[in-house]
Amino acid sequence: MTVIESDTINKESTVQLLSILDKKYESAKQVVVILDNARYHYSKEVKQLEEKSPRLKLVYLPPYSPELNLIERVWKYFKKQVLYNKYYKTVCEFRKAAIDFFSKIDQHAYALKSLLGGGFENICT
To answer: How far apart are CA 12 and CA 15, in angstroms?
Structure first.
């Protein structure tokens, strides 16, 4: 898993993540990244990065397709585990809890599998 920390999610953080993935999987024939329709995903810098890398393939979800956007299900589960009914005295405590969640995401494999597994059976038929 690849995790980066950023003060905000924007074209710069997107380029940073994509660059890291491109280098991390340099022996791969292709690195496919599925993106939603956030404006910064369509930025000139993101498009240029894809053009420069022979491996990087960006696939954009169709607009208004929440059933295909699995990351929203992950975020919902994350909020349930890390945010709801929790109190963090400091931002640092919250940050640590968030990083711990993603660092140990395999511990949530069973729950995530049930959230991410269904709903795609009839899409391509």
So the answer is: 5
Q: How confident is the model at residue 119 (pLDDT cuts 50, 70, 90)?
A: low
Where exactly are the structural domains of the chain?
11-60, 68-116
Residue 37, pLDDT > 60, answer yes
Selection from 27, 84, 102, 21 nearest residue 56 by Cα: 21
For the cut 80, the answer to whether the pLDDT of residue 17 exceeds it is yes
What distances in angstroms separate CA 92 from CA 37, 95, 106, 121, one per listed residue?
Answer: 30, 5, 23, 41
Q: Report the alpha-carbon distance of residue 49 to residue 21 in Å, rounded.
A: 12
Categorize the per-residue pLDDT at 124 as very low, low, confident or very high, splitting at 50, 70 and 90: very low
Give the angle subtended at the CA of 112 by the CAs of 34 and 50, to the nearest 5°.
Answer: 15
